[in-house]
UniProtKB/TrEMBL annotation, chain B:
GO molecular function annotation: siderophore uptake transmembrane transporter activity
Topology relative to the membrane: Multi-pass membrane protein
Transmembrane segments: none
Domain TonB-dependent receptor plug, first and last residues per copy: 132-257
BP-aspect Gene Ontology terms: siderophore transmembrane transport
GO CC field: cell outer membrane
Name of the featured protein: TonB-dependent receptor
Family assignment from sequence similarity: Belongs to the TonB-dependent receptor family.
Compartment(s) of residence: Cell outer membrane
Entry keywords, A to Z: Cell outer membrane, Membrane, Receptor, Signal, Transmembrane, Transmembrane beta strand, Transport
Length: 462, 1004
C-alpha cells in the first residue's frame, strides 16, 4: 500500500530498537536513586543546628502523643488511674481500658504493647540523637544542651518504664543486633543509670530554659533527679536536689485555679500542645458535660478524701448531675475542645512535687519538723490549715494523702506513690475486686517476650 | 557508578550472550529459505467461508515459509505459492485446514468450527505466546466466557475457584474492598509481599495499596487497586506459575504473574453490543448470637459469680437503666440491609482487512447493606485499535483503559459492633427522628456512620506495541506502556460522632485528606527471531525493560470547623497540618532473553533468562540474574501412540529455575530521618524512620515442576496433574523485632530455606456434546504444603517462638487445652515446661496449621437449545480459630451456643467456663489462653455455590441480531460448620455478600 511510509518506519523502528537496546545496556546506574525529597540522611541531621534541634523536638512531640506520657485514653495517665483507685470505668465492654480497670491485664494487651513500643521508639530516638551528636562537628555550645535534653528524655522514659514494668531492658545504643537480645536490668541498676543520665543532663542543660518551659532546663533535670533519689532511698540527695529547685526562685506555687494554665509559675517542664489551637488530651480524656459519663468518673474514695474547703477539690474536680445521680471528673485541665489559642499545656513537672519530695525525704530521715514545713506549704496553697502532726509515721501518712490529693490523675503518680510506700496491696485489695499482689507490675508485652527470649521470665502473674 | 567486580563479570557474560545470538540468527535465516523454489511460484486466490458466509481475517500461510496473508472483508485472499507447497488456513475457533496446491490456481475453503480446539489455542505467556499444547510451563487461564457469567466488580473475584494453585479470598464485603491472592502458597513471611506481578496488556500494574491509613478505614486500609480493571473488558487472564513461565519476569516472578489481556476488535463489519443488569445483594451468613433473655441471664450470673451486688451504676444493661425486654438483632439492623447493583455496558467493534477496533464504555453502581446513603460507582472506557500493513510486516496495536471510581462509605465497618452490642441496647432513634444517645449510656452505633470516607480514583492504563518484520522470521518490536493513577480520598470525623456527654462541637471536627498520584512508564524493546528448518523450529527473543514509577503523596489533617456543614473543605479548618508530603520513586532495569527449540512438535526445550536491577536495593545489591529451563515431550506424537483411538494427547513436561522478589517498598536500605507529622513549639520535628540495614539484597525462589497432561477420546476428557516444589532462600522479610529495638520490624534477608510443595490436578470433560445439548465439567483441586527446611540459629533468632524446623511457616503456636478444672470450672492447659505456670514462651508450643489443606472448584456448563446454565462450586478444607470476642459474662454479646452452657458448680459437665464480668482475672486469662489454644481451633471448611448463571437466547427472526436474558448469582449457598463466614473469617469485617442480578444483552 504505502511502501515509502513503511520503509521509513522500518528505518526508524530499527533505529529505535537498536538504540534503546544499547542505551539500556550502557546504564546500570539507572537504578541508583537519590534520597526522597522529604527525608534527610541520619548523618546529615546532626551536622546542622536547625535539623539537630528538630530531631530533639520530634521526640517531645512523640512523647506528648504516644507512649508513657501520652494524655489520651490509651496513655499511662488514664490507664493507671483506672488501674489504681482513682477512676471508675464507664465505657463499653471488651476494651483494653476495661481490663486495666478490672486489674485483669493480659501480656497480649494492645495498650501495653503500644505504650511499650512507642516508649522504646522514643528511647531509640534519644539514643540516635546522642550517637549523632557524639560524632557531630557542631560547636560544643550548640551540642551540649541538645545532649542534655537527650539524656533527660532517656531518663524520664526509663523512670516510668521501671515503675510500671519492674526490671526492664536498658539500652544506650541504636544497634538492633544488640537491642534485640537485651536482658532485663534490675530496677536498682536502672535507677543508677537514670541518675547517671540526669547528672549529665544537669551539667549540660542551660540554667534558664526556653519561654513557656516547653524544653527542659537544669531544674527539670534536678526535679527528676530528686524523684529518682527518693525512689532509691537516697533521701539526703533527694532533699538536696529538691532544694536546688525550690531555692532557685525561678518557680513559685500558684493557686490551684492557676496551676495548669500555660503561663503558670509553678511549671518546671510542660509539653508544647499538639496544635496552637489545641489544649490538652487530658481535658479531652476526663471531662464529660453530662452523666452518665461515656468513659470514666472519679471514684468516691478519692472525692471523699478531700477535707472541707480544700481549694483543689473546688478547682480541680467538676461534677454533673442527672436524675439525682452525681458523677465527678478531674478538672485540672478545664478545656476539652479546640480554642483559638490553647490556654493549657500538658504539665509534666511542677513545683509542688519538689515540696512533697522534700517533705517525704526529710520525714524518712526523721526530720519531722522540717518535713512538716514543706507539707504545710502545699496545704496552705490548697487553703488548708497547717498540720501539727508530731510523730513521723503520722506525718508520712499525711504526706501520702497529700500526694493523692495534689497529684491525682497525673502521670501515674498515685500508683507509683502507693508502691513506694509499700501500701499498694493493702489499699488496692480493699478497693479493687480484681486486685492480686502480682498486679503491682504490668506484664512485658507478649510480642517482646516471644521475639526476645532473653526477656524471660515474664513478670509474675502473667 | 560503583559496581563490584563479580557483578561486572556477570554483565559482560550476559552481553556477550545477547550479542552472540544476533549473528547466529542471521546464519540460521540463510538456511531457512529453500533454494530455487521461488521460480515456480504462481498466484493462488480464493474465498474462505464457514457455514454462515464469508470469513474475514482467516490467516493463510505457506507451510514451511513465513509467507502469509489474511482474507479480506469478503473472505477473499491472494497468495504466491508454488505447486508443491502446502497452504494452511487457520482461524481461531475453527479447525485448521491444509491443502496441497497442485495444479489449481483457485482454492476455496469451507472452514469448520472446532469446539475443542486446544491444539491451536494460543495462550499469552507475556513476552511471547505459545500454543497451549506445546507449552513447557504451567499456565492457568480463564477467558471472557468465564468472566461474563459473574456479576462481580473485581477481577480477582472472577478467578476464584477456577484456577488450580490459585487461592483467592475476599476479605470484606464492603464495595471496593481487598482480596487476598496466593499463587502456590505463601512464599514470603511478610503478608504484604506475596502479591503476584500484575501485567495489563503488557504494562506492569503496581498492586500496592494507594489508600492511606488515616483516610480509608472502612475497607481495612485497602482499596483493592485492581478495581481499576473492568472485568467485562477482559478477554483473558493467564496466571503464570512455574519457573519456566515466570523466570522471564525475573525478580518479580516469585509469587507468580497474572497477565490480563483486554478485549480487542476483529476484522468484521461493525458489531454493537449492549448489556444492562440489575440486582441486589445481602449478607451471605449471619452469626447466631444471644437474644436479650439469654444475654441478661448470662450477665446476671456473671455478677453473681463475681459476688458483685448490687449491680454497679455503669452496668446499664442489667441494672435496669436499659429496657430489660427490648430485643434487637443488631446484625439485621446494622448490616442486614440490601445492596442494589446496577450495571450497563455498551461496545462497538469491527474492522477492515488491515485495521480493527473496539470501543466500549461501562458504568456500574453498588449500594451497601449498611443503613445510610453509601455507594460505590465506577465508569470505564476501553479502547483498542490494531493495524497492520498489507504485507503483514508492520503491526501496531494500541489500547487504553480509563476508569473513574467514586466510593462513598462509612469510615467504620459496622460488623464488629453488630456482633458485640448488647441485644437490649436502646433504640437507635428518638421519637423525633434524632439519634438516641439514651442520656449518654451508650455510643449510638449510627453515629459511626457520620464519619464518612470518600474516595475518587482515576486511572489510565495505556499501551502500544509496534512491531516490524525486518527479515523473514526476524521481528523487531517495542512495547510502550504508561499508567497514571490519581486518588483523592477524604475521611471526616465530625463532632456529632461523639457522645454528646463530651460536649464537643464543630470546633472538634476533623478532616483527613489524602491525594496520591502514581505515574509509571515502561519501555521494552525486543527482537524476536524464528526459523523452521525441516522438523526443527527455533524461537529466539531478546529484549530489555526500563521502568520508572513515581508517586506523589500529599496527606493533610484539618480540624476546628466553624460548622460541620463545611467539613469537606480543608480551607475551612482552623488548624491544618500536612501529615505527609512525599515523592517516592522506583526504577527498574532488566535484560531478558528466551530461546525455544521445538523438534517435530514432539520435543521442546525452552530457556529463559533475565538480569534485573531495582532501585529498592542499596548500591552493590541492585542487580541479580534469574533464569529457567523447561522441557516438554509430547509423547502422543510418537509413532507408537499416533492415531491411538483412546489417548488423543499426552505431554510430559518439567521445568526448573530461579525467580526473585523486590516487594519491600522503596528506600528501605537508606538511613533517614523524615519530618514528623506533628509539630512541637511551632517546629516540625524530625524522626528516624526505620531501623537502618543497608545490607539486604535479592531473595531467590527456586522452582521445580513436573507435570503430565493427557487428552482422551479426541480430547473430550482432558486431565492434567502437576507436582511442584518451590524453595525460597534468603527471603526478604520484615523480621519481627522486639520493641526494645525502637521499631517492630527490620527489613533483612532471612537466612532460611522455605519450601512450598504441592499437587495440582485439573480435569475438563465434555460429558455430552450433541447438536442441541452440551454439558461440560471443569474440576480443579490444589494441595500445597509449606515447610521450613533450614534455619541456622533459629533458637537465638526473633522467630524462636514462632517457627519450628520441619513445620510450615504459617503455623500458629497454641496452648494445649486440657479441659475444665473440676473445682472451679476454669479452662486448664498443659504446663508443658512444668514450671507451675502457663506462659506463652514455655507452654504455647502445640502447633496448628491454619493453611488450607486443599482447595478447588467444580464448574459445569450446560446448554440446551437457547438455554445455558453455568455453575461453580468452590471448596476449601481448612481450620480456623473460633469466634471468641470477650469472656462470657462481660457486656459483650456472645454466640447463642454460650448460653446455658457455663459451669456453675463442682461436678458440672459444661462446655463453657463460669461467666465473669471481667474481675475474675483467672477466668479472663484462661479465656484468652483458650482463644490461643487447640481448643479454640475449629473446622472452617466449606463448600460454596460461588457462582450460578442461567441465560436464555431469545429466538429472534432477525438473523444478525441476538438477545440474551440472564440471571446470575454469586455466593448463593454455603455449606459449613463454621459460625460466621468461612471465606473471610474476619469476625470484625463485613463478610462477602451474596447477590443476584438479572440482565439483558443485545448484540447486532
Amino acid at each position: 500500500m504505502n511502501i515509502m511510509i513503511y520503509s521509513s518506519i522500518l528505518r526508524k523502528a530499527r533505529y529505535i530498537v537498536a538504540s534503546s537496546l544499547l542505551a539500556v545496556m550502557g546504564c546500570e546506574n539507572y537504578t541508583e536513586i537519590s534520597q526522597p525529597p522529604s527525608q534527610l540522611s541520619g548523618q546529615a541531621v546532626f551536622m546542622d543546628k536547625t535539623t539537630a534541634t528538630a530531631a530533639i523536638l520530634g521526640i517531645y512531640a512523640k512523647m506528648r502523643d504516644s507512649g508513657v506520657l501520652a494524655g489520651n485514653t490509651s496513655g499511662m495517665t488514664v490507664l493507671s488511674a483506672l488501674y489504681a483507685d482513682e477512676l471508675i470505668y464507664f465505657g463499653s465492654g471488651g476494651t483494653s481500658a476495661e481490663s486495666f480497670y478490672t486489674n485483669s491485664l493480659l501480656a497480649a494487651d494492645p495498650d501495653i504493647a503500644s505504650i511499650w513500643n512507642n516508649t522504646y521508639n522514643q528511647v531509640y530516638s534519644a539514643n540516635a540523637a546522642l550517637e549523632g551528636l557524639e560524632t557531630s562537628t557542631l560547636p560544643m555550645d550548640v551540642k551540649a544542651p541538645l545532649q542534655g535534653e537527650a539524656y533527660f528524655i532517656r531518663a524520664i522514659l526509663y523512670y516510668y518504664l521501671v515503675n510500671f514494668f519492674g526490671d526492664i531492658p536498658w539500652t544506650d545504643t541504636t544497634d538492633f543486633n544488640h537491642n534485640r537480645l537485651l536482658v532485663r536490668t534490675s530496677q536498682a541498676e536502672v535507677y543508677e543509670k537514670i541518675i547517671d543520665d540526669l547528672q549529665r543532663a544537669v551539667d549540660l542543660l542551660p540554667d534558664t530554659g526556653v519561654s513557656q518551659k516547653i524544653r527542659p532546663d537544669k531544674f527539670a533535670a534536678y526535679t527528676l533527679l530528686a524523684r529518682a533519689y527518693l525512689e532509691t532511698g537516697q533521701y539526703a540527695q533527694a532533699q538536696d536536689a529538691a532544694s536546688t529547685v525550690i531555692g532557685s526562685n525561678v518557680f513559685s506555687l500558684e493557686t490551684p485555679e492557676m496551676t495548669f494554665l500555660k503561663g503558670s509559675n509553678s511549671t518546671i517542664f510542660q509539653f508544647s500542645p499538639f496544635a496552637e489551637a489545641y489544649n490538652t488530651d487530658f481535658g479531652r480524656s476526663f471531662i464529660s458535660v453530662q452523666g452518665p459519663p461515656p468513659f470514666g468518673a472519679l471514684s468516691a474514695t478519692l472525692t471523699d478524701a478531700f477535707p472541707e474547703g480544700d481549694l483543689r477539690r473546688i478547682s480541680w474536680i467538676i461534677s454533673i448531675e442527672n436524675n439525682g445521680q452525681i458523677w465527678y471528673f478531674p478538672f485540672k485541665y478545664k478545656h476539652s475542645t479546640y480554642a483559638s489559642e490553647a490556654e493549657e499545656y500538658p504539665v509534666v513537672l511542677r513545683l509542688s512535687e519538689c515540696f512533697l519530695i522534700r517533705a517525704e525525704a526529710k520525714a524518712r530521715q526523721g526530720l519531722v519538723t522540717e518535713a512538716r514545713e514543706d507539707l504545710n506549704m502545699i496545704r496552705a496553697n490548697a487553703g488548708l490549715e497547717n498540720s501539727n502532726t508530731q510523730d513521723n509515721s503520722g506525718l508520712l501518712e499525711e504526706i501520702l494523702k497529700e500526694w493523692q490529693l495534689e497529684y491525682f490523675t497525673e502521670y501515674g503518680q498515685r500508683f507509683i506513690t502507693l508502691k513506694r510506700f509499700g501500701l499498694a496491696d493493702q489499699i488496692l485489695e480493699q478497693r479493687k475486686p480484681g486486685w492480686d499482689s502480682t498486679d503491682q507490675l504490668w506484664p512485658l508485652p507478649q510480642s517482646d517476650i516471644l521475639s526476645n527470649p532473653n526477656l524471660e521470665p515474664q513478670n509474675p502473674g502473667y | 557508578m560503583k559496581i563490584f567486580s563479580a557483578n561486572k563479570g556477570l554483565r559482560v557474560l550476559f552481553y556477550s550472550l545477547i550479542l552472540a545470538s544476533l549473528p547466529v540468527s542471521a546464519l540460521a535465516r540463510a538456511h531457512a529459505s529453500p533454494n530455487g523454489k521461488e521460480v515456480f511460484q504462481q498466484t493462488i486466490s480464493g474465498v474462505v467461508a464457514d457455514s454462515s458466509g464469508p470469513l474475514p481475517g482467516v490467516i493463510i500461510s505457506v507451510k514451511g515459509t513465513t509467507r502469509s496473508v489474511v482474507t479480506d472483508q469478503d473472505g477473499k485472499y491472494l497468495i504466491m505459492a508454488s505447486n508443491d507447497e502446502l497452504l494452511v488456513f487457520s482461524f481461531t475457533g475453527y479447525k485448521t485446514v491444509e491443502v496441497i496446491i497442485g495444479a489449481q490456481s483457485t482454492v476455496n475453503i469451507l472452514l469448520q468450527e472446532d469446539a475443542t480446539q486446544l491444539e491451536e489455542l494460543e495462550i499469552n505467556a507475556g513476552y511471547y505466546s505459545v500454543k497451549q499444547k506445546e507449552s513447557t510451563g504451567s499456565i492457568a487461564r480463564i477467558t471472557a466466557k468465564d468472566i461474563e457469567t459473574q456479576p462481580v466488580t473485581n477481577v480477582l473475584a472472577t478467578m476464584q475457584g477456577r484456577m488450580a494453585g490459585v487461592s483467592i479470598t475476599q476479605d470484606t464485603g464492603t464495595p471496593g474492598g481487598a482480596f487476598t491472592i496466593r499463587i502456590r502458597g505463601q512464599n514470603s513471611l511478610r503478608q504484604d509481599a506475596n502479591q503476584p506481578l500484575y501485567i495489563i496488556d503488557g504494562v506492569p500494574y503496581a498492586s500496592e495499596s494507594i489508600g492511606s491509613a488515616d483516610t480509608s478505614v472502612a475497607t481495612q486500609n485497602a482499596q483493592s487497586p485492581l478495581n481499576s480493571i473492568n472485568p467485562s473488558d477482559i478477554e483473558s487472564i493467564e496466571v503464570l506459575k512455574d519457573a519456566d513461565a515466570t523466570a522471564i519476569y525475573g525478580s518479580r516472578g516469585a509469587n507468580g504473574v497474572v497477565l490480563i489481556t483486554t478485549k480487542r476488535g476483529f476484522n468484521t463489519p461493525a458489531k454493537f453490543s449492549f448489556t444492562a443488569s440489575s440486582g441486589f445483594g445481602s449478607l451471605a451468613r449471619k452469626m447466631d448470637l444471644m437474644n436479650t433473655d439469654q444475654y441478661l441471664r448470662m450477665r446476671r450470673a456473671a455478677f453473681a459469680n463475681d459476688g458483685i451486688a448490687p449491680y454497679p451504676d455503669y452496668a446499664y444493661d442489667v441494672n435496669g437503666t436499659w429496657d430489660q425486654y427490648r430485643n434487637t438483632d443488631w446484625q439485621e439492623t446494622l448490616i442486614g440491609g440490601t445492596s442494589e447493583i446496577h450495571s450497563y455496558q455498551g461496545s462497538v467493534s469491527g474492522g477492515s482487512a488491515n485495521t480493527s477496533y473496539l470501543l466500549s464504555g461501562s458504568f456500574r453502581q453498588e449500594t451497601t447493606v449498611l443503613p445510610g446513603d453509601f455507594k460505590y460507582s465506577k465508569g470505564a472506557v476501553h479502547f483498542n485499535m490494531a493495524h497492520r500493513s498489507d504485507d503483514n510486516r508492520f503491526k501496531i496495536q494500541f489500547s487504553a483503559n480509563y476508569i473513574a471510581q467514586n466510593n462513598i462509605l462509612p469510615a467504620t465497618d459496622m460488623t464488629r459492633l453488630s456482633r458485640t452490642l448488647a441485644p437490649n441496647a436502646p433504640a437507635l432513634y428518638n421519637g423525633d427522628g434524632s439519634l438516641n444517645w439514651a442520656e449518654g449510656t451508650w455510643d449510638n452505633p449510627l453515629s459511626e456512620l457520620q464519619q464518612d470516607y470518600r474516595s475518587k480514583t482515576y486511572d489510565l492504563i495505556a499501551n502500544s506495541v509496534i512491531s516490524y518484520e525486518l527479515f523473514n522470521g526476524l521481528q523487531a518490536k517495542i512495547s510502550l506502556g504508561y499508567t497514571d493513577l490519581k486518588n483523592n480520598e477524604v475521611r471526616t470525623v465530625p463532632s456529632t460522632l461523639y457522645n454528646p456527654a463530651y460536649g464537643l462541637g464543630s470546633e472538634s471536627s476533623s478532616l483527613n485528606t489524602n491525594y496520591t498520584t502514581r505515574r509509571s512508564y515502561i519501555i521494552e524493546p525486543q527482537l524476536n527471531y524464528n526459523v523452521i528448518i525441516g522438523r526443527h523450529k527455533l524461537d529466539v527473543l531478546i529484549g530489555s525493560t526500563l521502568q520508572n514509577q513515581k508517586s506523589e503523596r500529599l496527606q493533610a489533617l484539618g480540624f476546628g470547623f466553624s460548622s460541620n456543614a463545611l467539613i469537606y473543605d480543608l480551607s475551612s479548618a482552623s488548624t491544618k497540618f500536612i501529615t505527609l508530603s512525599d515523592e517516592p520513586q522506583y526504577k527498574y532495569l532488566a535484560y531478558f532473553s528466551r530461546v525455544n527449540y521445538n523438534y517435530d512438535g514432539r520435543y521442546i526445550i525452552n530457556i529463559t533468562g533475565r538480569r534485573d536491577g531495582s532501585s529498592r536495593f542499596g548500591t552493590g545489591n541492585q542487580f541479580a540474574n534469574f533464569g529457567a529451563i523447561g522441557c516438554a515431550w509430547i509423547f502422543s506424537k510418537e509413532a507408537v501412540l499416533d492415531y491411538n483411538s483412546i489417548l488423543s494427547f499426552g505431554k510430559l513436561r518439567a521445568s526448573y529455575g530461579i525467580t526473585g522478589s523486590d516487594q519491600i517498598g522503596d528506600y528501605q536500605y537508606m538511613d533517614t530521618y523524615g519530618s514528623a507529622a506533628n509539630q512541637y513549639g511551632g517546629v516540625i520535628g524530625l524522626n528516624p524512620i526505620r531501623l537502618y540495614n543497608p545490607a539486604f539484597g535479592w531473595e531467590s525462589n527456586k522452582k521445580t515442576e513436573i507435570a503430565l497432561e493427557t487428552g482422551f477420546l479426541k480430547d473430550r476428557l482432558f486431565l492434567s496433574a502437576a507436582w511442584y516444589s518451590n524453595r525460597s532462600s534468603s527471603q526478604l522479610v520484615g523480621m519481627p523485632m522486639p520493641g526494645t529495638t525502637g521499631f517492630q520490624s527490620l527489613t533483612a534477608n532471612l537466612d532460611a530455606i522455605v519450601r512450598n510443595q504441592g499437587w495440582e490436578f485439573t480435569l475438563h470433560s465434555e460429558n455430552i456434546a450433541l447438536k442441541n445439548f452440551n454439558w461440560s465439567t471443569d474440576f480443579n483441586i490444589s494441595l500445597n504444603r509449606n515447610k521450613l527446611l533450614k534455619y541456622p540459629n533459629l533458637e537465638s533468632s526473633p522467630y524462636a517462638n514462632t517457627y519450628t524446623i520441619g513445620q510450615p511457616l504459617n503455623i500458629i503456636k497454641l496452648y494445649h487445652y486440657t479441659g475444665q478444672d473440676p473445682d472451679t470450672g476454669i479452662y486448664t492447659f498443659e504446663d508443658k515446661d512444668r514450671d507451675g505456670q502457663i506462659t506463652a514462651t514455655g507452654d504455647r508450643i502445640t502447633q496448628a496449621d491454619l493453611n488450607p489443606r486443599y482447595f478447588g472448584g467444580i464448574q459445569n456448563h450446560i446448554s440446551y437449545k437457547q438455554w445455558t446454565l453455568d455453575f461453580l462450586f468452590q471448596f476449601v478444607r481448612q481450620k480456623s480459630l473460633k469466634y471468641l470476642p470477650a469472656p462470657g459474662g462481660t457486656s459483650v454479646n456472645q454466640l447463642s451456643e454460650v448460653s446455658n452452657s457455663s459451669w456453675q458448680q463442682a461436678g458440672d459437665i459444661a462446655s463453657y467456663q463460669p461467666y465473669t464480668t471481667g474481675v475474675n482475672s483467672q477466668a479472663v486469662t484462661a479465656y484468652y489462653n483458650y482463644a490461643q489454644s487447640d481448643g479454640g481451633v475449629t473446622d472452617a471448611s466449606y463448600i460454596r455455590l460461588k457462582n450460578i448463571s442461567l441465560s436464555y437466547d431469545l429466538p429472534l427472526t432477525h438473523k444478525a441480531m441476538n438477545c440474551r436474558l440472564s440471571l446470575q448469582g454469586q455466593n448463593i449457598l454455603t455449606f459449613t460448620k463454621f459460625n460466621g463466614d468461612p471465606e473471610s473469617r474476619f469476625a470484625n469485617a463485613l463478610p462477602p455478600l451474596k447477590f443476584y442480578t438479572l440482565g439483558v444483552q443485545l448484540n447486532f
